[in-house]
Design a protein that fits this description.
The complex is a heterotrimer of chains A (344), B (326) and C (285). With 344 residues, chain A is mainly α. Chain A has 14 helices and no strands. In chain A, helix 5 runs antiparallel to helix 6 and helix 6 crosses helix 9. The two termini of chain A are 21 Å apart. By secondary structure, chain B is of the alpha/beta class. Chain B has eleven helices and twelve strands. Chain B has an eight-stranded mixed beta sheet, sandwiched between helices. Chain B has a four-stranded antiparallel beta sheet with strand order 2-1-4-5, with helices on one face. In chain B, a hairpin with a 5-residue loop joins strand 11 and strand 12. The mean pLDDT of chain B is 87. Chain C is an all-alpha fold and 285 residues long. Chain C is built from eleven helices and no strands. In chain C, helix 4 runs antiparallel to helix 5. At the A-C interface, helix 1, helix 6, helix 7, helix 11 and helix 12 of A face helix 5, helix 6, helix 9 and helix 11 of C.
Chain lengths: 344, 326, 285
């Protein structure tokens, strides 16, 4: 057991060091891109009517007269402390914006991730077990269609069906129904509701969460179902499966335990990547459902060229992505001993 | 069926469905294994030896079609038996060890896990499971196959073991429960010759101490000679000859067997033989009569028209050939 | 087996899967429609700047099979013309990102362990570490929103995948005997890369390229949904959907039909890509 801890830790430390390097590279990239934009950030911040001296003063404050790498260092120093500068759009520190909007997106993405992984795995397993029969064909067709459907299309359809034609779930209207007031503690609405024992708010929050989460999850769910099914079918023909069958182990035991574990490894591996794309697609869903989340904030800041906000959002998403991948790596190494024990 | 026969395969014909029609992989396999007997099934690569073993165990892939034949265990035809009976056969009748031990062991489970699950269902699958007893028996099995430090090995993963050790683990899984037959598909072929030798000795030893009958599939005549008492020769999906090992080596009856014996390099004499001219038949469009006839130096007209059956020429030496059998 | 037999076998394998054939048919249909757009659409003029408020927001009818939009334009015609920028995006993005990414990956993989390898692959990793869409959005937003810039943004985010793919294959086979043999007999690096290593990367690359056509189209639609791609009044699948969202639920046809078109388009390429992948899969006996 001790050996396991040591090797896993060293593996994780390597991954961690690597991730930090990548984040640094990302920060440099996005910073350079943002600063290369034609236009004067200081002028844009103050508007066309501000007097020149004030703009010049702002320029010096923002270090715009210094070389690029110095500007980068100032930015990084601030970023590490949590100071990303001011947003042109909301006229307040970007950090405050992050604190307000990020939790909503995280809730959305986590819920979507949960739906995606559980349903995806389940459907994939069912498909493999009843391969080529009616259920499987149905699942596969659905899978093909959903994979081909961009999340904004799913969002629009869900909106149409459940928002208008058959309004059983709240569609537009942000995070909570206006009639419900909730004291914010963590910033995560569902958590806050639970902590305070406010079940009505909790239920309302969940109800608002389901449609957008579903829209986000559908593409990834279909993809995971396909990969799980393919992986299971692939491994079904392997010798180590027929070896157990040849020893008289009942088929359902072979299929459920001994086929499943090696087969879900590819699925879990892509979950990390999928999670990243969830973040990316979240903005589309947030737009359609007017969800007050970070991705929508990010898109708005991109459309309005709010550079501080853009940099902060991209960096934040990169961070989350990196953390998610680390978590996925840990889980995969738990499932597949070959990775954590360093087999060739 | 003779009293001490434990397994009999009778006129087995198996095809596979695929592009271009059916591939007739097995076209007349006959063999008989007596209690505690070590029987060899020898033939070149691709002649259907592994398919025969898989047919016996009932683990052929889904595109396989059993055209004809019987696999008799204790008088019951496994090919037509109920799933429960087949499962019972796998648990207490026979076990198979596969050609590649690495592929045969589930990579994400420990050796202990894999051994236990096999044993668990082979003994009392209903009711409560006595874990400690299972572990004890499995550990014992590991030491029976001469693996050092069995307790530690129970906790390791297959990829952490060497090829020879993995092969021993596979053999251990076959003997955890008490069975009558061991089907061994080219054991040790993928390993070092010295390791292969150890494995074969292990199998021979187990056969003698436990009274385990063995069907040893191999392409090596040397192995057959060392290990088996009785041997069947296969060509292109057909068993063409069968007899006591020493007898078949001394007096091969079938032209194919004779040619094989010729190919064995000798220390004295004219050096290497030339090999057998011609090629294996196309399994999708096999010859109507004897499958060896296109290459046979002695073929008669009848050979090309109808398939010869396996007939006894006395002394339990059988051959499927119009030339030899009357 | 001769060439004719190989093709026959490939076709047998391919046609066994009805899905792949459906995909191939869809793709061919779409390409055909896009190429022949001016001749095939019922009201080609309405695909451009055109206004007819008398006919605005009409539901599907015999005159206008898919209805008209808020400016009175025939949706079916606009859809057919919208296929053009969609397909064009896919082709151009792949035409640029695949050779670049692939080339870089081959070079890096072949020179595995060297500084060149480290440099190329670390840059690739950075690009791969960002949620793909975010990067494309960031770039597209920084520039003027139009089709070309959207295409550039998507290309930038696309090439790393091919680089990684080529790298994996190249580095794994570079020590195989036939490559070493070529080196020993004095073959130039170029020859080795193109004649020995490249053919082995072909099957995953072809599959990925076909599948990617669908993904690129989807990404482009997402970008233009947000307003960062093709600008109106030129018809584009994404902006047709976003225009129509404002008129839900009453004039649902304005959103629903372009949305279905996107799905069918991507679906066609996905099915085709799967079929191609199955072709290259060698089934074990």
């Amino acid at each position: 057991m001790g050996g396991w801890i040591v090797t896993t830790t060293s593996y994780l430390l390597r991954r961690l060091g690597w991730s930090i390097l990548v984040l640094v590279g990302l920060s440099i990239t996005i910073f350079v891109i943002a600063r290369v934009v034609p236009g004067d950030p200081a002028r844009m911040a103050l508007g066309p009517r501000a007097p020149e001296e004030v703009v010049q003063q702002l320029r010096e404050e923002m270090h715009l007269d210094k070389p690029l790498y110095i500007q980068y260092l100032y930015w990084i120093k601030g970023a590490v402390r949590g100071d990303f500068g001011y947003s042109l759009m909301t006229k307040r520190p970007v950090m405050d914006d992050l604190k307000q909007f990020a939790p909503n997106t995280i809730e959305l993405v986590v819920m979507a991730g949960l739906l995606e992984s559980t349903l995806g795995l389940l459907l994939g397993i069912i498909g493999a077990m009843y391969a080529n029969r009616a259920i499987d064909t149905g699942i596969r067709v659905m899978g093909y269609v959903f994979v081909a459907t961009p999340s904004f299309v799913v969002a629009v359809f869900l909106l149409l069906v459940f928002g208008f034609w058959w309004p059983i779930l709240p569609a537009i209207g942000g995070r909570l129904s206006p009639s419900i007031a909730l004291h914010r503690i963590t910033g995560f609405v569902t958590l806050d509701a639970l902590i305070q024992g406010n079940l009505r708010a909790f239920g309302d929050a969940l109800a608002h969460l389901i449609l957008p989460a579903l829209a986000l999850a559908v593409g990834g769910m279909a993809q995971e179902a396909r990969i799980t099914r393919a992986s299971m079918l692939d491994n079904m023909g392997k010798d180590y499966v027929s070896a157990l069958t040849s020893q008289g182990v009942p088929r359902r035991v072979v299929m459920s335990k001994y086929l499943l574990r090696p087969s879900v490894i590819p699925t879990v591996s892509i979950m990390g990547l999928d999670f990243a794309s969830l973040f990316g697609n979240a903005f589309l869903v947030e737009l359609v459902f007017t969800w007050p989340g970070l991705s929508r904030y990010g898109i708005m800041s991109m459309l309005r060229k709010d550079l501080n906000a853009i940099c902060a959002v991209v960096l934040f998403m990169g961070l989350v992505f990196v953390v998610m991948n680390l978590i996925v790596d840990v889980v995969v190494s738990l499932l597949d001993p070959r990775i954590r024990l360093g087999a060739k | 069926m003779a009293a001490d026969t434990v397994l009999e395969v009778s006129d087995l014909r198996v095809s596979f469905r695929g592009y271009g029609g059916k591939t007739r992989v097995l076209d007349g396999v006959n063999l008989r294994v007596a209690k505690g007997q070590r029987v060899g099934l020898v033939g070149e690569a691709g002649c259907g030896k592994t398919t025969t073993l898989k047919a016996i165990m009932g683990i052929l892939p889904s595109q396989a079609v059993i055209e004809e034949g019987q696999v008799l265990f204790r008088g019951q035809d496994l090919l037509k038996a109920s799933p429960v009976a087949v499962q019972s056969f796998r648990q207490r009748g026979a076990a198979m060890i596969f050609q590649d031990p690495t592929a045969a062991l589930n990579p994400v489970f420990t050796v202990g896990d894999l051994l236990q699950v096999g044993l668990r269902y082979a003994t009392d699958s209903r009711g409560k499971v006595d874990r400690a007893r299972l572990i004890k028996r499995c550990t014992e099995a590991l030491s029976e196959v001469s693996l050092p430090d069995p307790e530690r090995i129970m906790k390791t993963y297959p990829f952490q073991l060497s090829g020879g050790m993995r092969q021993r683990v596979c053999i251990a899984s076959a003997i955890t429960a008490t069975r009558e037959i061991l089907l061994a598909d080219e054991p040790g072929t993928s390993l070092d010759v010295t390791i292969q030798d150890q494995i074969l000795r292990l199998i021979t030893g187990l056969s003698e101490t436990k009274g385990l009958a063995v069907v040893l599939v191999t392409h090596s005549l040397g192995v057959v000679r060392e290990v088996t008492e009785y041997v069947y020769v296969m060509y292109a999906g057909v068993v063409v000859e069968g007899g006591p090992t020493a007898e078949v080596f001394a007096r091969p009856l079938h032209p194919y067997t004779a040619a094989l014996m010729e190919c064995i390099p000798r220390l004295t004499g004219q050096g290497f033989a030339e090999g057998i001219p011609g090629r294996l038949p196309d399994y999708r469009n096999p010859p109507r009569g004897c499958r060896f006839s296109p290459r046979c130096p002695h073929s008669l007209k009848t050979c090309g028209e109808a398939k010869p059956s396996l007939l006894d020429t006395g002394g339990r030496h059988m051959v499927a050939c119009y030339l030899r059998a009357r | 087996m001769e060439k004719r037999h190989l093709f026959g076998q490939a076709w047998y394998k391919f046609s066994r899967s009805k899905a792949s054939v459906v995909g191939a048919v869809l793709v061919l249909l779409v390409i055909g429609l896009a190429l022949l757009a001016p001749f095939v659409s019922p009201y080609p003029k309405q695909a451009g700047p055109y206004v007819d408020f008398d006919n605005a927001s009409q539901p599907p009818s015999t005159a206008h099979l898919l209805g008209t939009d808020n400016m009175g334009r025939d949706i079916l015609s606009r859809l057919i013309f919208a296929l053009r920028p969609g397909l064009l995006m896919g082709i151009l993005v792949l035409a640029i990102s695949v050779p670049i990414g692939f080339g870089l990956g081959l070079i890096a993989g072949y020179n595995r362990g060297s500084l060149l390898d480290a440099l190329i692959m670390r840059v690739t990793d950075i690009f791969l570490s960002v949620p793909p869409l975010i990067l494309a959005l960031a770039i597209a937003s920084v520039l003027e929103p139009n089709l070309t810039h959207a295409m550039m943004a998507i290309t930038v985010m696309w090439w790393p995948w091919y680089c990684r793919l080529a790298y994996n294959v190249a580095s794994s086979i570079k020590n195989d005997y036939y490559v070493r043999y070529a080196e020993l007999t004095g073959a130039s690096t170029f020859h080795i890369l193109v004649r020995e290593i490249l053919p082995n990367c072909l099957s995953p690359v072809l599959t990925k390229m076909t599948l990617d056509m669908g993904w690129v189209i989807m990404t482009a639609a997402s970008l233009s949904f947000v307003g960062l791609g093709q600008q109106p009044p030129a018809p584009d699948l994404g902006n047709m959907v976003s225009d129509g969202v404002k008129y839900l639920p009453d004039h649902w046809w304005m959103t629903v039909f372009p949305a279905i078109a996107i799905v069918l388009l991507v679906l066609g390429f996905n099915l085709l890509g799967d079929g191609i992948r199955d072709l290259f899969t060698v089934e074990e006996a």
